[in-house]
């Protein structure tokens, strides 16, 4: 399986590797979000605007403390399901218990962390303009010339 | 980098599972269309990203069908885009714009 992503040009003039995904709310409505590929993140994390879209009941949903370069922040636990398109155009569903941000933060974006990325070989090649998650029958080869 | 700091009082780590590919042709076609529109909205955002970052710090923005929506309240923003584009709001590109430091 392969998921193809892209380098997203952000408002702070930095390009970041993302995979496009679509999140479902409990009523089956869908809303699209870019998911940052963050190999340094322990857990997949939904942005505040994604959590707001799901409209989950966050009472008693306190999650673990998240510690990053900019300091520590709170999280909430919630159940969510989302889909990504694989390289042949099939929707692949993902879901389960994950973490979300309970309020907006400066580096706001949904994040794919090692809990999910650990299942894939990851290519984030800025000079080659390639972003890809690979597993199963798909492989990559490194050529040296 | 984001490290998750565990707590003894909290339940086990979050778990995500990946399911089988969806194969219903109608569902697949509809979802591909949503993702194609999202790509277009994302491209619109990228073309205007510097300007948006400069003009709307600390606010939520959505791009739908070549139109920019801005609000300080994300749920009101979702109401705005659903009203303005009831057929295609689900492919919106939505983002919180970092406040100026």
Description:
The complex is a heterodimer of chains A (145) and B (101). In chain A, 8% of the residues lie in helices and 46% in strands. Chain A is mainly beta and 145 residues long. In chain A, the strands form three sheets. In chain A, strands 2, 3, 4, 5, 8, 9 and 10 form a seven-stranded mixed beta sheet that branches. Chain A has a three-stranded antiparallel beta sheet with strand order 1-12-11, with no helix packed on it. A two-stranded antiparallel ribbon of chain A has the order 6-7. The two termini of chain A are 28 Å apart. The mean pLDDT of chain A is 89. Chain B is of the alpha+beta class. In chain B, 42% of the residues lie in helices and 21% in strands. Chain B has helices spanning 25-55, 74-84, and strands at 2-5, 16-18, 60-64, 67-71, 93-96. In chain B, a hairpin with a 2-residue loop joins strand 3 (60-64) and strand 4 (67-71). The longest helix of chain B is centred in the middle third of the chain and has 31 residues, at 25-55. The model of chain B has no long low-confidence stretch (mean pLDDT 90). The interface between A and B is large, with 63 and 50 residues.
Essential attributes:
heterodimer, A: 145 residues, mainly beta, three-stranded antiparallel sheet, B: 101 residues, alpha+beta, globular
